[in-house]
Write a structure and sequence with these properties.
This protein is an all-alpha fold and about 325 residues long. The chain has 14 helices and no strands. Helix 1 runs antiparallel to helix 14 and helix 2 packs across helix 11.
Amino acid sequence: MVEINQPQRHTTPERIDYLDGWRGLAISLVLLEHFLGVYNVNVGRLGVDIFFVLSGMLMANILFIKRPPLSVFYKRRFSRIFPVFFVFVTSVSLASYFLNLSEEHGNYLYNLLFLRSYFPSSPDIWNTGLPIGHLWSLNVEEHSYVILSIFTLIPILRQREYIPLILLGGACIVIQYLYYRFPNYAPYSFHLHTEVVASHLLLSAGYFLIKHKYKICVASWAPLLCFALAVLCYSPLAPHWTAQWSIAPFLLAFCVNHLEHLSDTVKNLLSNKYLKYLGLWSFSIYLWQQPFYFIIKNSSESKDLVGLLLLLLAILAGVISFYFLENPTRKFINQKW
């Protein structure tokens, strides 16, 4: 098994089973929230934040340890994300235009350029009448990748990038607190803005560099304990609802960065084939599940049977997208570009 901090070529890296399982866990929680309903625990948001901390760790490893040319980094990001994203956004916009579903197709370029969380500010991305609300999280990821890549261009930060990353991650938490504390000064829909949501990704990236530099090892139970405490942050059992954006980022960042220290038994559970496949398909599933969630969200029918049927259709749509769109286009672009 390849360790996450080992140097690799710029070709397609070997997959790490328990990281695919972590992705699978993340998308499972999102689907569970959307289609089967979980009360009292915000597992949908937990799933998104699990994605965020994994992205932060992996991007820190690529940008600050492996240090490929930024042209290579962005080509890889483009081939991984943009083709299927373009098809999704274009399909939804065309449906909106020809079926007169909404005026949101007028914001096509904002959606395509990962700017819709900010422009236009009203209606926000969750209230457009179209199934694009989930794109806010992709906006946060793309903005964060730009921030991280800029740090690679500043020589004085070499091998100290964890300092601004940890500071920025903490600043996101402070900004969110200030927005809640002084709502009259907060922008509309600030809870979707990168400056308050990127804490998980930035803190995870910063902690990865600290762990890498100081060779931090922990007991096998430590990441499990932090994950259990993080889950509590998304439940009513937390001391205050703000725990999920003030405490959970630190717990999840610690947890994902120490998955390698889990016992073999727990790693094997996280590496089971069902979670791995869900992790492999997770990006396509995340994109294409939203129209099905949109149906159940606006349906007056009983949610149980309808939800299960739509869940299966959402997974099927994601699988089809992965094998016929996402994976082939990524391979084609990487081979030709």
